Automatic annotation (TrEMBL), chain A:
Keyword line: Ligase, Transferase
Source organism: mine drainage metagenome
Entries under SUPFAM superfamilies matching the protein: Glu-tRNAGln amidotransferase C subunit (SSF141000)
EC number: 6.3.5.-
Listed name of the protein: Glutamyl-tRNA(Gln) amidotransferase subunit C
Annotated gene: gatC_8
């Protein structure tokens, strides 16, 4: 399995990771190596095997749909890189 | 070096109860040792002043007869556990200045038991690595040295390498680790200490910075099996805040150390003898088998036929979960932010500046295997093979009680001695990853030295929620091995 530069660019965009043009060749080589390594799974017969999503042999617990936490705005905002009037501040998103 | 730093937790607990020394004296001796060990770079953040105050509080509780199970015992906390008011970085630049406003359940449990935290220990960035070299705050050095080349600086393993080095260097009596594919067991082996990754669900993941949520599990690292049992008892327990935390009672792990393994069947998987396994590791494994046989257990050859597919399975499942978990680092609510002209540009620039190369690589792989058109071919396929790997163990445990294997294919390697191919680095975890994929308890204990004087570990694997048998067998092996070698740093 070989990944070309355009594919790496697409993945990086999906992952919201800025990648410089001069890094693309190296990354494409590295990621291709890894995909070649994992390719060996195709030789395993998995017909009729259910995908394993969790090793925990339990169903997810439920609880009443009530508020159990909150009233801690300042704690939530404490690590925000930028905040204003009790809100997170982001770059302008509406043109 | 104070003799207090050579005590085990079990010994220190007795000494404190008998008033031979105070918790303040015990903690001060370890702080002194930690200051001497600063060149190893095992701690990212020291909390010595808070530790002294905690130790004084421990002395008061000891005097009143209200001591917890780990009262006054100095420990290290892997910098992946959120600690209220104390910077928690995951050894990533993206969390360089993150101060959690809450405490993880495991660290809260340990504090409730009276443990005294000396600081936050280093790890590979976001626990992704086997050498501690991917930390954004510099490599950690293993306190052990090669006989043939004492000048070479060796890795402590990873990702819990800071914890392993801190324990081996006698700066703390134990430390927390987390293990996703071997991150407790491999560094324990490299540093000549003992560590157990308990069953998935045994310890709460709440407040532990996530890497791969279906695999991540916290566990103790210490210098003896008994100390691991003491510490695991304090860490474990059901937590409603983690929906995968198992609602099962925590047994008295120490009580499981009966010293008797007669009649137990010990599985020896034939697939763990790959071509090229070093003679040393092979001989160590054979020695372990012989010791258990002499103690009255019966070795049984077993087959875990899908073993060779564990590594490629892991390197689809773990990056997929990593890419999803690490999507939260957006430069918006916490963590590093680099401004951009648009919201998307801010995300992309913040993440590029904040993540190191191994983390970036895994996010990209994970994003790829989860993307439209590739999901079934890679991610769903890996989840199916994961089930086959887990079923191999289920079948084996119908005939055996515990499984014995090497922990890692080699002893600790040198900082910067590895090649650039990430897959080569991943081979370090070839013996530990299958256990992680199956969610089973796995313990590594030191079982001997390499020809070059470096510790080598053996791994014991148990049934789900049967840490007791694993600890019982490990305790018997520990006594039979009589590992008493001390790292060069401690010898002085």
């Amino acid at each position: 399995m070989s990944l070309d530069k355009a594919t790496v660019r697409t993945i990086a965009n999906l992952a919201r990771l800025e990648v410089r043009d001069d890094e693309l060749d190296h990354l494409a080589g590295e990621l291709s190596n890894i995909m070649t390594f994992v390719e060996q799974l195709s030789e395993v017969n998995t017909d009729g095997v259910q995908p394993m999503t969790s090793v925990a042999a339990l169903s997810l617990p439920r609880r009443a749909d009530v508020v159990t936490d909150g009233n801690c705005r300042d704690k939530v905002l404490a690590n925000a890189p930028e905040q204003q009037d009790g809100f997170f501040l982001v770059p302008k998103v509406v043109e | 070096m104070s003799k207090l730093v050579s005590l085990t937790m079990a010994e220190a607990r007795k000494g404190l109860a008998a008033k031979e020394f105070t918790a303040v004296e015990l903690v001060d001796a370890h702080i002194l040792q930690a200051e001497k060990a600063r060149p190893l770079n095992a701690f990212v953040t020291e909390t010595f002043e808070a530790a002294r105050a905690q130790a004084a509080a421990s002395d008061q509780r000891l005097a009143k007869g209200q001591a917890g199970a780990m009262e006054g015992l100095p420990i290290g906390m892997k910098d992946l556990f959120c600690t209220e008011g104390v910077r928690t970085t995951a050894c990533s630049k993206i969390l360089e200045n993150f101060v959690p406003p809450y405490e993880s359940t495991v660290s809260a449990n340990l504090k409730k038991a009276g443990a005294v935290v000396l600081g936050k220990t280093a790890l590979d960035e976001f626990a992704m690595g086997s050498s501690n070299m991917t930390s954004a705050f510099g490599a950690v050095e293993n306190p052990w040295k090669r006989r043939s080349d004492p000048a070479a600086r060796l890795v402590p393993g990873g990702s819990s390498g800071g914890s392993a080095a801190a324990v081996a260097a006698r700066t703390v009596m134990g430390a927390t680790g987390t293990d996703t594919g071997g991150s407790i067991r491999q560094p324990a082996a490299f540093c000549g200490i003992t560590g157990i990754k308990p069953t998935y669900g045994r310890c709460s993941r709440w407040g532990v910075i996530a890497f791969a949520s279906s695999l991540d599990q916290a566990g103790p690292m210490a210098r003896t099996v008994r100390d691991c049992a003491i510490m695991l008892g304090a860490m474990a327990g059901h937590d409603p805040k983690d929906s995968t935390s198992a609602p099962v009672a925590v047994p008295d792990f120490e009580a499981a150390l009966s010293g008797d393994v007669r009649g137990l069947k010990v599985g020896i998987p034939r697939e763990y003898r790959p071509d090229g396994l070093s003679d040393e590791v092979q001989a160590l494994w054979d020695k372990g088998i012989a010791l258990l046989k002499a103690a009255g257990a019966t070795p049984v050859e077993i087959s875990l036929p899908h073993t060779k597919y564990a590594l490629p399975t892991y390197y689809i499942v773990a990056p997929a979960e990593c890419s999803s978990n690490l999507a939260r680092y957006d430069g918006l609510r916490y963590g590093r932010r680099v401004d951009g002209k648009s919201l998307d540009e801010m995300y992309a620039k913040s993440r590029a500046a904040g993540f190191g190369s191994e983390v970036r690589r895994r996010i990209l792989i994970g994003t790829y295997v989860l993307s439209a058109g590739y999901y079934d071919a890679y991610y769903a396929k890996a989840q199916k093979v994961r089930r086959l790997i887990a079923e191999d163990f289920t079948k084996a445990f119908q005939t055996v009680d515990v499984i014995l294997t090497p922990t890692a294919p080699s002893a600790a390697f040198g900082i910067g001695e590895t090649d650039d191919n990430p897959v080569t680095m991943w081979l370090n975890d070839v013996f530990t990853i299958p256990t992680s994929l199956a969610g089973l308890p796995g313990l590594s204990l030191p079982a001997g030295l390499s020809a070059d004087g470096l510790p080598l570990g053996l791994q014991l694997i148990g049934r789900p929620f049967d840490e007791e048998t694993v600890l019982r067998v490990a305790d018997v092996m520990e006594k039979a091995v009589g590992f008493d070698a001390v790292p060069a740093f401690v010898e002085g």
